[in-house]
Amino acid sequence: EEKEKIKISDLQYAIIHKHAIAFHYVNSELQKSERTIEPLQLAFKSHAWYIVGYCRYKKEIRIFRLSRIKRLRVLSETFARELPADYSLTPDRNEPCPFPFLKLKFSPEIAYRLYDEFQEDQVHLGEDGNYYVTIPYELNNWTFHYLLSFGKYVEIMEPEIARTMLKERAMDIVNMYT
User: Fold this and answer.
1) pLDDT digits over 31-78, tens only?
2) Looking only at Cα atoms, what is the longest distance across the chain?
3) For 92-101, what is the mean pLDDT?
4) CA–centroid distance for 110 within its chain
5) Is residue 122 classed as helix, strand or coil in its secondary structure?
6) Cα 156 to Cα 167: distance, rounded to the nearest angstrom
7) What is the pLDDT of residue 97?
8) How high is the pLDDT of residue 90?
9) What residues have CB less than 8 Å from 70, skipping those under 6 apart?
10) Do 87 and 61 contact (CB within 8 A), yes or no?
11) C-alpha–C-alpha distance, residues 34 and 36, integer Å
12) Alpha-carbon distance values, 113 to 23, 40, 155, 167 (Å)
């Protein structure tokens, strides 16, 4: 879309010329906030664009999904901060993960999506013909909406709490239509 192209162009300008930006943001839990950040990098990850920057509110490097940024303004204020040389969008495999590991079983009918959306070493074909993925995910609305996008072709094997939470969301949908 043209608006997205303009947003990316404005962000590229702000990164190159080291201008702070301000915007309204809606996170995956639908919480709204106003942020001012020092933009340091544009990144394309998991089928979406993100801006990496130093968030003055949280006082740390954060990432923000571009599609959730509204009312973007490039400020005249400049900054000197650089992205740390050791910064990575992917967590260090040696660091403890703050999220539980979801063990997911996918039926073969949906296999085409698995290699688009997960890394190859995360997808394993089982002897039963199903595909298995074990991956850390935060148990939040975004995760469950994402899993529901696979419809009947995914089953959460573990943890049990995640199975229960997904079942409750699915029942809410069923109840809407009954």
Assistant:
1) 899 999 999 999 887 667 889 999 999 999 999 999 999 999 999 999
2) 60
3) 62
4) 21
5) helix
6) 10
7) 52
8) 63
9) 23, 24, 25, 26
10) yes
11) 7
12) 33, 31, 15, 22
Instruction: Determine the 3-state secondary structure of 118 from DSSP.
Output: coil
Which one, of 66, 18, 12, lies nearest residue 38 by Cα? 18
The residue length of the chain stands at: 178
| 40 neighbors 53 (Cβ within 8 angstroms) | yes
Preceding peptide of 39 cis, ω within 30°: no
Report d(CA 173, CA 178) in Å as an integer. 9
User: Hey, is 79 helix, strand or coil?
Assistant: coil
Query: How far apart (Å, rounded) are the C-alpha atoms in residues 27 and 149?
Result: 19
* Distance, CA of 18 to CA of 102 (rounded, Å): 39
Residue with tokens 């703050």: 98
Task: Output the CA torsion 152→154→160→161 (10° steps).
Answer: -80
The alpha-carbon radius of gyration of the chain (Å, integer) is: 19
Tokens of 83: 């992205």
For the full predicted model, state whether its pTM sits above 0.85.
no
> Which residues lie across from 55 on neighbouring strands?
37, 60
Which residues are paired to 42 by β-bridges? 51
